[in-house]
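Ticket 4471: requesting a sanity check on a complex prediction with S-adenosylmethionine. Repro inputs:
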Amino acid sequence: MPIRPTEWEGVSTDGPWLLTQNMVPGISVYGESLPREGGIEYRRWDANRSKLAAYLKCGGRVWGFREPASVLYLGAGSGTTASHVSDICRKGTVTAIEISSRVFRDLLRLAEPRPNLVPVLGDATKPETYGGRLGAVEVLYQDVAQRDQAGIFLKNMEWVQNGGLGYLMVKARSEDMAAPPARIFEAAKRELVKAGLKILDLRVLAPYQLDHADLVAQKP
Ligand SMILES: C[S@@+](CC[C@H](N)C(=O)[O-])C[C@H]1O[C@@H](n2cnc3c(N)ncnc32)[C@H](O)[C@@H]1O
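Returned structure tokens:
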């Protein structure tokens, strides 16, 4: 099938696969294939490797990742998803926070040819250590897989502008190994509502990402 744009800004598809336009032609970040069409190189975006792609594959419709968007990304790891966000928000800035110095080295290498990707070795539980240099961002994306995910998210929503969006990828097992995931997701949702955020979506990411959900919230 020919490659065509989707309803989500910056995301294309060839039918079975989601694709983003490769900002660094010729470079595959995690072994993904690089189809070309009409003189443009794309990168396959694997929903089994990226929770944001899983959100779209599972029918997610709320999309704040515009081409010029400024994004605060917490828990970037070696940059699998952050690289696609960098492809999408190509005229914006993606500030990527990662606590592990081991994976941070890969993130630094990834960011070298990507002028919109700014890696920061930091701790998402301490937003005051990096927030000052950010200014207000349009989108917060969090995937930290540790306890108190909603609490960390709320602290970081401080740096989101009014009307901006937050994507909280909740890993149920990081909160409680024994509790049913649905209960964990609802508890996180209640915490966000209590803090005054408007919930726009709560979407379970199975079968791509087991025991995970994406909570999308808006700052009023
Ligand atoms: C599930 S992995 C991230 C995968 C990545 N978001 C992706 O989709 O490509 C979670 C990451 O969060 C990082 N992390 C955990 N606690 C953190 C914290 N307090 N601050 C920043 N990063 C943290 C871990 O080191 C790990 O790299």
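Notes from triage: Residues 189 and 215 are 7 Å apart (CA to CA). Leaving this open until the requester confirms.
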